[in-house]
Design a protein that fits this description.
375 residues; 5-stranded mixed beta sheet; 12 helices
Amino acid sequence: MTALGAAALLIVGGLSEGALSEGGLSEGTLSGGDGRLGVPALVLLGSCGLALAARRRAPLAVLVVTALCALGYQAAGAEVLAVPYLVAVYGAVRAGRRPFALAVSAVLLAALHVCALLLRDGQPVAEVLARPRHVLELAWLVAAFAAGEAVRQAERRADEAERTREETARRRADEERLHIARELHDALTHQISIVKLQAEVAVHVARRRGEEVPPALSAIQEAAREASRELRATLEALRDDDTAPPHGLEHLPDLVERARSAGVGATLRVEGERRDVPAAVARTAYRIVQEALTNTARHAVGATTADVSVRHGADRLTVRIDDDGTAAPPAVPASGLGLLGMRERVTALGGRLDARPRDGGGFTVHAELPVEPAS
């Protein structure tokens, strides 16, 4: 609508300079012999306005086209204000191309004066040099520059404010996470450590006296150990605020080595072309392998080996951990916090997790994490 309105405005402005000849529009000259506009002049006027239809997609091209059209219809005798060119200047400056718009405007202004002098046809020089002023009014040109720059600055400030809000929200979330970690540490770690220590002392004393350790006391000792491990894992996750170097794929050999020291014959196999993956994906893969190997060492009945496989695909990272425990279908995997945490991490990244007993015995954890395709 803007382009059509500008085209109509220019054509009406051009026709208002004088009525067309009774015989119709002159088709052989730029303007009629009596000063009336011909078809080429009206075509240039219309084209100058219609070019604005592409002002958002190609602001620089529209700037050049409207400048050429303005120069052309002045040569055809139409002294009409180049409104489309002023709109194009506004769009180019708003797009951040102020130097280009300034250069084109300077060239156009000079070309308009040269064209007027070449076509003055005996008219006084002062009168001829006044013609470009009607085509490219300097005051409107300055206003177009100022408006474009003002809108560009406002949009930049809005973008900066949006980024600042996101960073502030992320920083507050990190601070809250660290606050929760400190509260958990102060409120629980000390008490659980005392319970664990007292239970271990009681078990030690009972064994030294040759007495049978009560099952309840053994259960307290084991529960305290498990609570300490889960609490440490929770605190580690809460403190992971992305400011310290996170664990990733490069740390998997360390996990496998620790599993071996715990008595599990763990192996690591990496397939596919290695490439960088997002930090969140690498961290999730590390946590999955860590939890799977921990479960194998602590909970898998009869497990002596664990095979860790990492495959780099074109659009996904596949992680698989298989152990040789005695689990078999149709056994249902325990829905502990470790498995639940793995599933939540994978789901948050838009991936898929499968954790179940294998047909041939043992347990498998299979995760597929989407990554950006390699360019």
